[in-house]
Structures are given as C-alpha cells and as structure tokens.
Design brief:
338 residues; mainly alpha; Hypothetical protein af1432; 16 helices
Amino acid sequence: MLSCPREERQALERETLSQFASLAETSKGRVKDEPECEIRTCYQRDIDRIIHSKPFRRLKHKTQVFLQPEGDHYRTRITHTLEVARIGRTIARALRLNEDLTEAIALGHDLGHTPFGHAGERALNDVMSDEGGFKHNEQSLRVVERLEKENAGLNLTYEVRNGIVCHTGKEQPATHEGAVVRIADRIAYINHDVDDAIRAGILSEPDIPEEIALAFGRAYSVRINTLILDMIRESEKNGAISLSPQAAAAFDAFYDFMFKSVYSNARAKSEERKVFGIIDGIFRHYAENPGELPEDYRRIASEDGLKRAVCDYVSGMTDKYAIYIYGEIYIPDSWEVK
C-alpha cells in the first residue's frame, strides 16, 4: 500500500529527530478523538487551526509594549508571535526537535493576551482578584480549549496545550519544544522591545550597559544570534533546554535594565492609567448589564459564571475595539439642532 504524506512525514521524524524530540505519532492526542488527516501530522493541523482562528487574527491590533504608537514599524502582539515562532523553529531545527510542535506552541502562546499589553493584563487581574486573578498564559489555554469555535475549542493536542500554558509561570513545559518556546519568547520580546524603545526615542544604542553589549553585542540581530547560538550549544551539551549560566546571568541583567529603562519608564507608560479606567469601565458595564453580552458569552456566563464570561469577552478585545466599546458606553453621541 502506498503511504500517505502524513505517514511519510512521521517516518521522516522517526529517522531524523533527536531522542528528545516529541514525535507526532506518539502524541498524547486530543481531548476529543478525531480521524487522522492524510496530509498533515497532528502538530501541523494544530498550526493551521491556530492561524485560521479569530483570536490569532486579533493579535495584529493588540499592543506589545507601546500603547497607540505613531508609526507603522512598532511591534504588535502578532509580530511578536511571529518572531517567537521563527526563533523557536531555528533552535528546534538545530537541536533536531519537532519544528511543527515548536511553531504551534509559539503561534498559540499569546492568544489570550489582553488589549493594551501587560497594562491590560494587570487591569483584568485587579478586577478578577476575587476569582483567582488573570494570567494571559492561562487565558491562552482557555481560548483554545473553551472559547474558540462557539465555545467548542480548537481541540489541540496535549503537547501544544501544555506548551501554551507553560510558556511562562512556575510550571515547566512537558516537552523540549515547549521549553524552547519558553526561552524564545524572552529572547524575542527583550530584543525587539529594545528596538522599539530606540525607535521611540526612549533609548539609544549607547544606553545599553557595557556588560550586556560585551555578552551579546550591540546590534539587534547580533544579540539574537548570540543568544540562539548559546542556547543551542548549552542544550546540546546538557540534554536540557537552557542558556549557559553566563548567558543566563547576563540575560537577567538585560531584563533588569529593560524593566528600569523601558517597562517602568514614565514616558513609555504615560497612558497606562487610562487603560485601567477603560478596562474597569467596560467590565463593570457588562457585569451590570449581562444581557448586552454577545450570545456566546451569555452562554459562558450561564455555565462558568458572569465575571468569567465578562473577563473572557474583555480580554479578547483589540485595543481599538476596547476604545470603541468604551466610547459607545460612556461617551454621548454628538447631535445637532435642526
């Protein structure tokens, strides 16, 4: 019998991937069993399901760091996601891990992120404090398991779902591919946030501390290449996904520098106080008027509770849509006397 493309791909994985790689044919599978695709492996199908989902499309209008930036070249949540996917695949290829699984995790890792970046996340965490708070990685998992496809979820494989929820936080990923994305995420955002901060005039290249420049280089592409190469070499040597102790220490210093210079910079964060007002105002309105929620979210409210449903709705909004909804609720329409 002639084999189908999926079987050929699975055979190729068996022959070429590392002993540490997650093979598609040995996946723990999906919550709901499905017939296999003749063309794509289970991880390739997960990539397609994520890319074709509505939450993925909304990432293009969600803030990364800078709120409402003037200019076309600042990162959004979708450009960040694509950079993580590319860095992750580069590392996975060098380590002979499963590139498809790595890409699927990377593409899905921020699907649950709020409008207005981490400011929006903090605002939702405040209003949800009596419900256990809000964490974007947990919401990303909820998106793919509960919210998308009219509350049926995307029915992704266990390995992808685990990588999504474990890309940040205390729990470590169950696969090497998930561990790759966890570090690739940090490599991507710290370096592209420097690039955006320089574009915004908040930083200049000479502001980067000498210890960081000596460790990784001053140019954007050089820093990323150095970190990727270090991670590949250290992971090959130890069999665990990690940076070398020296690179990890310099990377922590890099993050501390960015936190002080950019992430808590008064100029960069000057508009964030307004975010809390917008998020809180929208949330209170729908909590008090649940009948105005879209039908899917009214159904969630009846099953999971009203606050969780409102949180799901608000966290899924783009920056522009949240501003529009806030205006519709609280700003009176203009009128003219005839």
